[in-house]
Write a structure and sequence with these properties.
Number of strands: 8
Number of helices: 6
Shape: elongated
Structural class: alpha+beta
Order of helices and strands: EEEEEHHHHEEEHH
Radius of gyration: 20 Å
Number of domains: 2
Strand content: 15-25%
């Protein structure tokens, strides 16, 4: 049974397929992650023009048949983020956003907060060269953990509930631990890392707090360890 769907979507990855087609991984507002094929897109006279490229935000019409891939039949550009494409560091940051999202979400499931975060970080990378700094990238990842339901426990010790003397992070338990409850395998998670990670989750992406390298490293490790233990997702450290 076939079906036609209309959705707002962001292209995260594009791969060549056959002589003139491309396979795209897109993240949609209405349906979450979708795999799609754009037939004839690499021909010079393709009706899609240059719009089906990574980090375009589009209105799409897709036709779903019996195969795993939907077929893209129509696209209209909502934002091409042209300034982002003019800066190598912005493109690199956007590519890491795409890789992270594709590893975190492997099934079709609507998650509008996640879609909005992707659109927001791309818009920020387009508008501000400073958005390529590591603080923004880590803030995006932390917010995506919250949107996907895998955010670590940061309010109190995951073992005893104390909010005092929080000094470490427990990957298996998925959160911070106090000095008395610290166990082998937990790693240092200092006050600066705690302040950064909680502040990054609470603040808009454009206002991601500055932090020292060690605080960023500890925060990055907390994010990657949480994903590895509780979402079975392995991502590369940013710091």
């Amino acid at each position: 049974m076939s079906n036609t769907i209309k959705t707002e979507a962001i292209v995260l990855r594009k791969m060549r397929y056959g002589e003139a087609d491309s396979i795209l991984h897109i993240y949609t507002r209405q349906f979450g992650r979708i795999g799609a094929i754009a037939k004839g897109v690499r021909r010079s006279k393709s009706r899609f023009g240059g719009r089906l490229e990574p980090f375009f935000r589009l209105d799409m019409v897709l036709h779903e048949g019996r195969g795993e891939l939907a077929t893209i039949t129509s696209v209209d550009t909502l934002d091409g983020y042209s300034h982002l494409r003019a800066r190598a560091e912005s493109i690199d940051s956007a590519a890491k956003v795409g890789d992270f999202v594709l590893k975190l979400f492997d099934d079709r499931e609507k998650n509008e907060p996640a879609y909005n975060l992707i659109a927001n970080v791309l818009a920020l990378l387009d508008a501000d060269p400073r958005a390529s700094r590591r603080e923004v990238s880590l803030a995006f990842r932390a917010k995506m953990l919250l949107a996907s339901g895998f955010s670590p426990e940061l309010g109190s010790c995951v073992h005893c509930g104390s909010s005092e003397d929080l000094v470490a992070f427990s990957p298996p338990s998925g959160g911070v631990v106090c000095r008395d409850c610290r166990e082998a395998g937990d790693f240092d998670f200092g006050e600066s890392a705690y302040a950064f990670l909680t502040g990054a989750i609470a603040a808009p992406l454009a206002e991601a707090p500055d932090a020292a390298p060690e605080a960023l490293r500890q925060s990055d490790r907390a994010i990657t360890a949480t994903l590895a233990h509780h979402a079975n997702v392995k991502v590369r450290d940013l710091v």
